[in-house]
Write a structure and sequence with these properties.
Layout (H helix, E strand, L loop, with lengths): L1 H98 L4 H44 L1 H4 L8
Length: 160
């Protein structure tokens, strides 16, 4: 009976040691789980902040692109109007050349002025079109960035 008691006490001691070891492992795992939860929350907050920042940038770029498109449309309309005026001035110039030499200088001055205005508007419209293309490229970059956000951060499949 004493041997059996000693054997059972030995088993109880081993089980107590094993139980304490398991409890320590459990506490460590709980701490690690809590650390992982805090880390995931911080990553989620960081990701949310980044998404908000990207959305703000996207809104700003969209506004700039719309403004550039409107400006380009306006400049194209002005360009077309000036081309019509230039054509009229050239026609008038031809008419004056054929019969009215005295007014030729005034017509030439008007045509030169119209040409200068036309060239200035063409230069301005080219700049606006370049800005529009740049804005579109920036929007494409942001769209690509948003499309690849899921590749930036890894979220464990089992939620840990």
């Amino acid at each position: 009976l004493k041997e059996e008691n000693a054997s059972l006490r030995s088993k109880i001691n081993k089980l107590q040691i094993f139980s304490e070891t398991q409890a320590d492992k459990m506490r460590k795992l709980e701490r690690k789980l809590e650390e992982n939860k805090i880390k995931e929350e911080k990553e989620a907050q960081d990701l949310e902040a980044m998404v908000q920042h990207v959305e703000q940038n996207l809104q700003l770029m969209t506004k700039r692109a719309v403004k550039a498109e409107n400006n380009a449309t306006k400049l194209k309309q002005e360009n077309a109007l000036l081309q019509v005026q230039l054509k009229n001035y050239k026609t008038e110039n031809e008419a004056l050349r054929s019969g009215q030499a005295a007014s030729l200088a005034a017509v030439k001055q008007n045509a030169d002025l119209a040409l200068q205005n036309l060239l200035a508007i063409i230069t301005s419209s080219r700049s606006s079109i370049k800005q529009l293309v740049s804005g579109a490229e920036s929007l494409q970059l942001v769209a690509d960035l948003l499309g690849s956000i899921d590749r930036i951060t890894e979220v464990p499949e089992n939620g840990q």
